[in-house]
Amino acid sequence: MILATLGNARLFALLVLAALGVAPVARANIDDYEFTLVEQEIKKGDAIVSVRLIHKPDGKLVPDAVIFATRLDMAPDGMEMMTTDIERLASVERGVYRFKTALTMAGRWRLSLAAKLQGENGTLQSKLMLKALP
């Protein structure tokens, strides 16, 4: 009788553990993250553009994002077709992402980014404006 009770208790414990294993895990919303420019103004010419990825609720920097789309254009000055090449560089600080580019004209430039974050559903998309100084 005692063995039967112990067997039922073990079975119950296994069922509880199995249920906990498949229970949904609470995750942050992709809207809880944002890219911000390290510098809003950069001298025209060859440049390094750096952005921080921030988890807004706690203000912590987020490393290891997979940035899969980048674009730099002059849309803020009405010249969306005016684009320039942009190349990802190695990061020197966790949560800060760097890009090499040539800001060929003074004026306002729009940096568009799309990224996937580890453990999060959805895609983080950002459009940031920076100013190229003469």
Your description of this structure?
The protein has 134 residues and is an alpha+beta fold. It has one domain: Sandwich (Immunoglobulin-like), CATH 2.60.40.10. It contains one helix and ten strands; from the N terminus they run αββββββββββ. The protein has one helix spanning 2-22, and strands at residues 33-37, 41-43, 45-55, 60-61, 66-74, 79-84, 86-89, 96-103, 107-116, 124-133. Strands 1, 3, 4, 7 and 8 form a five-stranded antiparallel sheet that branches. Strand 3 (45-55) and strand 4 (60-61) form a beta hairpin. The radius of gyration is 23 Å and the shape is elongated. Mean pLDDT is 87; it is low at 14-26.
Short overview:
With 134 residues, the protein is α+β, with helices and mostly antiparallel strands. It starts with a helix and ends with a strand.
